[in-house]
Specification:
3 strands; mainly alpha; three-stranded mixed sheet; 11 helices; Rhopdopsin 7-helix transmembrane proteins
Length: about 325
C-alpha cells in the first residue's frame, strides 16, 4: 500500500512537472505582423516616431504641471495622472512591436504574453475610470463652484486615483489568472499584434463560458458605467452652462471641458471600433490597423489635444520655453 501511494505521488509530480514544462515552452505566433510583411521598415520608422511623440508629449505635460504653480489644481492633477498612464499604456506593447518588426520570428512566449496582458488590462481599466473621474471633477467645478474646493480636496483626489488603480489591478489579476490556466491545444496563432483576452479565448480548446461571463461583467463595471457617468456629468454641465446669461462666461465655462471631451471621444470611439466589430468577414490588416489606432495613436494624441485646446497649458508651455531660453543664454554668457 505504501508502494502504491508513493507511485501515485510520483506520477502526479511527473504530470505536474510535464504541464509546467509545456506551459514554459508554449509560444504564440502574432499574425498581425504579416500585414506589414513588405513595409516593415517603413512601419518601424512610423511607429518609432509615434512612440517618441507620445513620450515627449506626455512627459512635457508631466513636467509642466509639476513645475507651474498655476496648474496645481485637481483638473491638472488628474491630467498629470492621465499623461503618466498613457506613457505606461503605450510602453506595454509598442516597444515589443518595434522589436518584432526587426525580427524574422513574430512570436511571444507564454510568460511574456500574459505579462503584457496583465499590464494592458490594468492601464485600460485605469484610463476608463480616470476619464470618468475627470468628468466628475468638471461637473463639480461648474455645477457646484462654491463647494468645489471642499468636495475635491487633495486628499479626495489622491483617494480617487488610488481607488482607480486598485480596481484595475484586481480586475487585471482576475482576467489574467482565469485566462492563463486555460489549455491552448488547438492553435497558437494570435490574429493580433499583442496579447489580448478575446484573441486568447479563441485559441483555447476548453469551455471558456466563465471567462466570457466575467469579461462581460467587468466590461459593464469598468467600461459602460464610467462611460455613463461621463455622459450624465456632461448633460448636467451643459444644462448649467446654458443657464449662464453671458455668452463669454458660457464659453469660458465650456472651454475647460473641450479637451477632456475630445480625449473621451477618441478613447471610447477607438475602443468600441476595436472590440465591437464583427470577428470575421474582413482582412487581417483591418484588425491590425484598428488595434494600432486604439493602442498606439490614442496615447500619442492625448497630450496634443490638451496642448492645442487648453489655453493654460499653452501659456505654461510658452513660459517654460521662455525660461529655458533665458537659462541657456545665461549659461552661454
Amino acid at each position: 500500500m505504501h508502494y502504491i501511494n508513493n507511485l501515485s505521488s510520483s506520477l502526479a509530480d511527473a504530470a505536474e512537472q510535464e504541464m509546467g514544462n509545456r506551459t514554459t515552452e508554449l509560444v504564440f505566433t502574432l499574425l498581425g505582423f504579416s500585414a506589414f510583411s513588405e513595409q516593415h521598415k517603413l512601419v518601424f520608422v512610423a511607429l518609432l516616431a509615434v512612440y517618441f511623440t507620445a513620450l515627449v508629449g506626455n512627459g512635457m505635460i508631466l513636467i509642466i504641471v509639476w513645475l507651474d504653480s498655476g496648474l496645481q489644481t485637481p483638473m491638472y492633477y488628474f491630467l498629470q495622472n492621465l499623461s503618466f498612464l498613457d506613457i505606461c499604456y503605450i510602453s506595454v506593447t509598442l516597444p515589443y512591436m518595434l522589436n518584432k518588426l526587426l525580427e524574422e520570428e513574430k512570436t511571444i512566449s507564454f510568460q511574456a504574453c500574459f505579462t503584457q496582458l496583465y499590464f494592458l488590462i490594468t492601464f485600460v481599466g485605469v484610463e476608463c475610470i480616470l476619464l470618468a473621474i475627470m468628468a466628475y471633477d468638471r461637473y463639480l467645478a461648474i455645477c457646484h463652484p462654491l463647494r468645489y474646493a471642499a468636495l475635491m480636496s487633495r486628499k479626495t483626489c489622491l483617494q480617487l486615483v488610488v481607488a482607480s488603480w486598485t480596481c484595475s489591478l484586481l480586475n487585471s489579476a482576475l482576467h489574467t489568472g482565469l485566462t492563463s490556466v486555460l489549455p491552448f491545444c488547438a492553435s497558437h496563432h494570435i490574429a493580433h499584434l499583442f496579447c489580448d483576452v478575446p484573441q486568447l479565448l479563441k485559441l483555447s480548446c476548453s469551455d471558456t463560458s466563465l471567462n466570457k461571463v466575467v469579461l462581460l461583467a467587468v466590461t459593464v463595471l469598468l467600461g459602460t458605467i464610467p462611460f455613463l457617468c461621463i455622459v450624465v456629468s456632461y448633460v448636467a454641465i451643459a444644462r448649467a452652462v446654458l443657464q449662464i446669461r453671458f455668452a463669454q462666461a458660457q464659453q469660458k465655462a465650456f472651454s475647460t471641458c473641450v479637451s477632456h471631451l475630445a480625449v473621451v471621444t477618441l478613447f471610447y470611439t477607438t475602443c468600441m471600433f476595436n472590440y465591437n466589430r464583427p470577428t470575421s468577414g474582413h482582412p487581417l490588416y483591418v484588425d491590425t490597423l484598428a488595434s494600432l489606432l486604439y493602442n498606439v495613436v490614442t496615447p500619442m494624441l492625448n497630450p496634443l489635444i490638451y496642448s492645442l485646446r487648453n489655453k493654460e497649458v499653452k501659456a505654461a508651455l510658452k513660459h517654460a520655453i521662455g525660461q529655458t531660453k533665458l537659462l541657456s543664454k545665461s549659461m552661454r554668457a
